[in-house]
Batch of 4 targets.
Target 1
Amino acid sequence: MLRFSSCQAEIADPFCAELAAFIGEKLAIQSEFIGDIPWQERERLLLRGDIHVNWICGLAYVRKHNLLKNTIQTIELLAAPVRNHPRYGGRPDYYSDVVVHADSSLQSFEELSGKTWGYSEPASHSGYNIMRYHLAMEGWGPNYFGRVIETGSHRNSIQMILQRTIDAAAIDSTVLELELEKNPSIIEQIRTIKVLGPSPAPPWVVHGSVPTDVQQALRQEFLSMDKDPRGRQILECARMLLFAPVSDHDYDPIREMERIATSDHTNDQGTP
C-alpha cells in the first residue's frame, strides 16, 4: 500500500487524489490518498513514514531535509510540477503575487508601509518566508506593516482582502490561478501590485522507508506522466505541462531566502 497526500492548498486535493490513483495503477501497487485530515497532520505522518508520498512546500522540504539528513528517516525528492502558463517559461517555478482589493488606492509594495498585511501561516514560503526576505533585502524595519494577521490559508487571505479585513497578502501564484478559475467573479475584485520570485516549485517527495526500487519507479512515473494520454489529461486539468526532475541543490534559493529573512532579526514582524 502506498499512501499519498498533499500539504498544498485544499483546492489541489482532487488533482492529488487522481494522481495517486493513476500512479498506483501504473505501478500495480494499491494506493490511497489521505485528504481528510489537516495538512499539519499529513506532514507529521510523512515524517513518521505513515504517509509515503507527499506534495510539500519548498520551505518544508529544506527544513525537513536539513533536520533528517543524518538520520534513517529521510525524505527524497521525486519531481516538481511545471505549470502551463507562459509566465513560468516551462520551468518548475512559481511566484508570490502580492494582491490588494481592486478598489484599493494602493499601487505598489512601497505603499504598504503602515498597512495591514495577511499571511497564510509561518511555514509557508510563498505567503510568509519570501515576504520576510523581501523586507530584509529592502532594509525595511520591524514595524513596516502597521498590523500583521495570520489568516490560515491562501484562500482565507483572498477572502479577507475581498472583505477588506486586510490590505494585502502574498498569494501562491498557482493557487491564485486555480481560485480565479473556480471563482471567476473574483477576477474583477482583486489586483496584483507586486510579484515576488520566482521560487522553486513545491516538490513531491517520498519517505526514505519506501524501498529504493519503488522510489525509482515512482520517480519515473511522475516524470513520464505527460507521455500517457490519461496522465496528460490529469495534468492539463490541474494547469500543468509535466513534472520535471529536481535535486536538493535546486532548493538552495529557498534556503538562502530563509537565511537572510531569519538572520535579519530587525525584520521580525511580531509573527511566529
Note: Confidence is low (pLDDT under 50) at residues 265-272.
Target 2
Amino acid sequence: MKIATAAYPVSWCPTWEIYAQKQRDWVQLAASNGADLLVFPEYAAMELAAQAGEAAAGDIQGSIDAVSARVPKLNTLFGDLAKEFSLHILAPSAPVREAERTVNRATLFTPTGAAGHQDKQIMTRFEREDWGISSGGPLKIFETTLGKIGVLICYDSEFPLLARALVEAGAEIILVPSCTEALEGYWRVRVGAMARALEGQCVTVMASLIGTEPRLFGVESNTGMGGIFAPMDEGFPPTGVMAEGSLNKAGWTYATLDAAKIGHIRADGHVLGVQHWSEQPARAGEIIIEPLRAK
C-alpha cells in the first residue's frame, strides 16, 4: 500500500463550499499520486468553526459547538471522498458533544462506505484544564483490506501501554494524527510514535497540523510535519524513518509499505520485541538498592 500523511495548514474557511473544496483538493492530490491510505491531523476540523463567524470561532464553547454541529456533514464529505477516490481516509479529528461530555474523535472511512471512529484516550493539560475535552470510548482495531489499523491521537502515542494493547490485538499500522503548538510538542509526539513502532514492531503514521490562524480557538499556532516510522529491522530503514516531510511545509508525505514485512520481523526479526515484551515484569519485579561506597 502507499500511505500519505499530511502536514496540513490551518486556514479560515468561512463557507462550507470553501472548506469542502479544500478537502477535495487535498484528497485528489494524494489519490493522483497513488495513495491508498490518507491521514489528516488532529483538530484540523476546527476550521469548520469559521462558518459560525469570528465571535464563535474564537470562543472556547462557541468553537466546540460550531464544529460539533458540523461533524455529521464532515463525515458525509469524507465518506463520499473515500468512495469516489477508492481510498481509506482518517479524517481530521474534531470535538464532538456526547451527552454531558465532549470527546476528541477521529473517523476512518473506507472505499466501501464503512466507517469507524476512535476517541482520544488521555487528555493534555490544555484539553483538561482549558477546553473541557474528556476521554472517550475504548481503543479499537479497524480490520480493513489494508490490514489491522489502530489510532492513537497525538498525546496517546506517548503512552506505551495503549500501543501495546493495540499490538496485542493485532494492529500492524498505528495512525497518529497530531496537533502541537510548539516544536517540543511535535518532538514529544514524534519520539512517542517512533518508540511505539520500535516496541510494537509496527508502522506508525504521524500527521501534523501546521500554520497560524488567530481567529480559531485552540489551533491559533501549530508546528509539525508528516512522518512514517518503522522498526529498525530487516526490510525497513536503519533509522526507522520511512519518510518525513519538512518542518512546517504544507503537503503530503508518502511511503510504500509491504505489510507482510511486519509479520516477518515479528516472527523472525533481528530482535523480537513483541515476543519478548512479557519478560519485563519478572525482571522489573525486584529492584536491589546497592550503595556504592569508596573503600
Note: The domain at 2-282 is CATH 3.60.110.10 (Nitrilase/N-carbamoyl-D-aminoacid amidohydrolase).
Target 3
Amino acid sequence: MHHRTATIQMIKDVLHEDYINLSVRRYEMSEDVQSGPCSVTVELQRGDDGPTETISGAGVGFVDALYHGLSDHYAREYPSLGTITFTGFEVKGHMNTSEGQGADAECLVSLVVVNTEERQFRFEDQGRSLVAAATKVVVEAAEYFINSERAYISAFRSMLDAKDRGRPDLIEVYTAQLAELVKTTSYSEVIERIKAETRT
C-alpha cells in the first residue's frame, strides 16, 4: 500500500495556491433497483470559498456512477484519472456510536485504488451517512490523482527551466520530486503532451 502522507505534502509544496481542494456540498441520486442504471449529480466546491461545479454521471450503482461523472468531467484535462482501477470497497459500521437503534451509527468507508504500476492507494472517510461518506471518499481519490498529475507537470516544466538556466542544484530537487510523483500513476501521455508543448 502506497503511503500518501509524504506525497500529499510534496504535491502541496509544488502547487502552493494552485492545489485543487474539492469538497462535496450536496448530492442527488436516482436508481431503479430493478433495471438500473444509477444516476448521480454532485455539487463540488473548490476551496473554502471558491466556485462550485456540478458533476453528473451514470453507472452500475452509486460509486460507479459518481466516478464516471468525475472522470468524464476531468479526464480530458487530467488523463491519469482514466488509468486507475478500483479494487476494493469496504464499509464498516461502528455500532457503538449509535444514539438510537443502530441505524444512525457511524460508518467507515474505505476505497482501494490501483494504478498502472500496480501500486495500491487507500482512501477513507467516516460519518453517519453512508452515501455522504462514500461520495467524499471517491471525490478524495479523484482530487489526489488530479493534483498529483498537476504537480508532476509543474515539476517537469520547472526542471526544463532549471536545465535552460544551468541550475544543477534545482535539477536535482525537481528530479527527486518527479521520481516520487511518478509512483502515483502512469504519466506517459502527460509527458508526451509536455514534450509536444516544449517543441512548439
Note: The longest strand covers residues 22-31.
Target 4
Amino acid sequence: MPAAPDVLRLPQAVLRPVRGHHAFEACVEQLATAIRLGVYPQGTVLPAERELAERLGVSRATLREAIAALRAAGLVETTRGRGGGTVIRRQPARRRSAARAAIRGRHADLLDSLRFRGIVEPGAAALAAESELDQTTRAMLEEALEAVSEAPPGPEHRQCDSRLHLAIAAASGSTRTMAAVTQVQAELDEMLQAIPVLPVNIAHSTAQHRAIVKAILAGNARRAARVMNEHCEDTAALLRGLLG
C-alpha cells in the first residue's frame, strides 16, 4: 500500500500535541479533519501508532481508541498481518440534502467563518511569499498545485484543493496561521459539500491557484495576498448565493 505523501509535510503541520483533559476527543477531531481535508488521501496508510501517538502527545491506548472511532465512522479500515495498517477508506460524500441538513441553523457562524478566511488566508499567502523557502517547501507547493490542477471535479478535487491551501499555510512558517487555516478549511469543506460541483468555478479557481503559487515562489507578497483575497471572495460569493 502506498504511504501517505510525507513530502508535503502537511501531517506534521496539521497534527498538534493534544492539550487538556479530553485527549480522546481531540485525537478524533484532529485525525478526522486531516482525513476529510485530504492530508491523508484515500487509499493511503496512516503512520505507525508510535509515530502518531508521539506527534499527538497521547498514549498509544488513547490513539487506538481514536482510530476505533474513525473506523466506526467509516473513515478508515484496519488490516492485520504483514503489510497491514490503518488505511483511509472514506465513504462517498454525503448527498447534498444531507450536507445541507448538517449545517442547518449554523449559517451565520459559517458565513462568519468565510469572513475570517478572507483575513487569514491572504495573510498566510503573504507570509509564505515573504519567507525564504527551501527547495523542499517549494516542491511541496508545486506538487500540491499540480495535484489540484489535474484532479477531476468532485471529492478528489476538493481534497487536493484543501491540501494546496494547507501547504501554503505550512509554507508561512507560522503554527498559529496553520491552525487557523486548518479550521477555516474544515468549515469550508462542510459548506462546499452542500452545493453542486461547478466546472466553471473550478476552472476559475485553478487559474487563481496558479497565480497565487507563482507569486509566492517569486516572493511577491502583495500579489500573493491580493489574488488569494480574490479567490476567497469568489468562493464566499458563490456560497452566499447558493446556500441562501
Note: The first helix runs from residue 10 to 14.
